[in-house]
Design goal:
Layout: H1 5-17, H2 22-29, H3 33-46, H4 67-79, H5 85-96, H6 102-111, E1 139-149, E2 153-162, E3 168-174, H7 179-193, E4 205-208, H8 217-225, E5 230-232, H9 242-255, H10 263-279, H11 291-295, H12 305-319
Parallel strand pairs: 1-4, 4-5
Antiparallel strand pairs: 1-2, 2-3
């Protein structure tokens, strides 16, 4: 049985004041001699405080992150509040050349109450797509989403996303959702990707839903004129366009934190986030690369600290299915391939 520190001290006092030998006194109390002498040694060395129970865990964990590094991680998290623990781990490893795991960053941020609940509902889906693209510009996903400007009403964001890299190839903020708006967005994407100025064997296929603007004859004529095939998802099955739906969710979680009173303000916010999304936001599904890294064929050099991180992360996933400050980015930036709406 465990004795509180006060009872241990009382037993020591009884033994010290007893006229009986120590062992006989302890036998009557019911305390083993080895236990008593352990208490007594701690009492002599540390006083009454030494009788407090000590935690069974080791005083130092061999792989504990040093306090100075922990402070830097917290500082980065406060400076970049929009980054997830995974993105913080990759950013810290990439910029500080010091490996930390996603799980370590999560535990550290949780201890500082810096982990927020997700603002979305997780939907169970298949582990992976059955028919995958193998390179950029094979398949483009496109869709509209609604955004509001206070005092002006609803605007409609038309986006073209590269299926392989998740790169936002082009976008346009529109006042309607017509086939002409889709064609204008595709003009921006074709120009940004270079597919309209060079001869390619196959133009990107277009994947959309069955909205009125996507089944219109005007759009079919445009696609035929530009040599593009059109694939439409099954009705009532938005998972077919899961990547662009996820893009809409990520975009809205960020930019809808503010109110917008002018169309130009909303366009500026979208342009800033598209640049962040394409060039700075690490994607776990892309091996913790940015969409621009994948779209333009960039990647970490073999043996670099970030490639080591990704190898360790992959090994961790193979072992177990359970998911476990100056920040100057020195990697070359891509030329802006996302174009906003024209004047």
């Amino acid at each position: 049985m465990r004795y509180p520190a006060a009872e241990k001290l009382e037993i020591i006092r009884i033994v010290e004041q007893s006229h009986l030998p120590v062992r006989r006194t302890l036998a009557q109390i019911g305390v083993p001699p080895t236990t008593f002498y352990r208490w007594y040694d701690r009492y002599v060395e540390h006083g009454p405080e030494g009788l407090e129970d000590r935690p069974s865990r080791p005083s130092r964990v061999w792989n504990r992150i040093p306090d100075a590094v922990r402070d830097q991680i917290v500082e980065l998290a406060l400076h970049e509040p929009d980054l997830s623990p995974r993105e913080l781990a990759v950013r810290f490893t990439d910029t500080k050349k010091y490996f930390v795991s996603e799980a370590s960053v999560y535990r550290l941020l949780k201890s500082y109450d810096l982990i927020t609940s997700p603002a979305y509902v997780v939907i169970k889906a298949a582990d992976e797509f059955r028919d995958k693209t193998t390179q950029p510009n094979q398949l483009w996903q496109t869709d509209f989403t609604y955004l509001k400007v206070t005092g002006w009403g609803w605007f409609y964001l038309s986006t073209v996303l590269d299926d392989f890299s998740r790169y936002i190839v082009g976008w346009k903020l529109c006042t309607t959702m017509n086939a002409e708006d889709v064609s204008a967005t595709l003009d921006i994407a074709l120009a940004a990707s270079g597919c309209d100025s060079v001869t390619v064997l196959h133009k990107p296929r277009l994947l959309s839903d069955n909205g009125p603007c996507y089944i219109a004859g005007d759009l079919a004529e445009y696609l035929e004129e530009h040599g593009m095939d059109h694939v439409r998802g099954a009705p009532n099955h938005p998972q077919t366009q899961g990547k662009i739906e996820r893009w809409h969710q990520t975009l809205k979680n960020r930019i809808l934190l503010e109110n917008y009173y002018l169309q130009g303000d909303l366009e500026a916010a979208i342009a800033a986030f598209v640049d962040h999304y394409n060039n700075h936001r690490y994607h776990e599904s892309l091996g913790n690369l940015t969409p621009a890294d994948v779209y333009f064929g960039r990647g970490p050099e073999p043996g670099s600290i970030i490639s080591t991180y990704r190898a360790r992360a992959l090994q961790s996933k193979i072992r177990s299915p359970v998911p476990n400050h100056s920040t100057t980015d020195t990697r070359p930036q891509s030329p802006s391939a996302s174009a906003g709406p024209g004047p």
